[in-house]
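>> received
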Amino acid sequence: MKTETINPKTPLAAYQAIKENAKRMPKVRDCSGLKIGQTVRQGDVYIERVQAIEGKGAEVKNRQLAPGTTNGSRHIVADNPHVLLFKSKPALESRGLRRFPVQIGPAIEAKEPWTLTHPSHPFCAQFPAGSFQVWFQIDPTTKQRVQD
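>> returned
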């Protein structure tokens, strides 16, 4: 039986390399060193550590950060009574070095470390106690939220 040599430049070889790399990736992304003003991205959701939450509205019970019912919108703050989510004043802003357009999401106030999970991303993210603002990526042409 002849064995086939796979050219690493083929789509199949690239797919297999990605699949093997995913097996070696850590299952937890440690964001405990996140400083004020720094942002972590999970898919189409950005979580920025802030000094204080601006425009904090009513507490929300839904722990899903991105609106929607698709698998891609399942960015979930793990259940913890010391981590509260709040509505944020709606806004469309430019953030960061590249000045990318974003839409504001919920705010997070955590008195203890907390975890963000997602069924499609290969890791969950662990954050320190503190205040955080969630941002959604926006298509600059349509001004609509980009979705995972």
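>> Residues 11-24 form the longest helix (14 residues).
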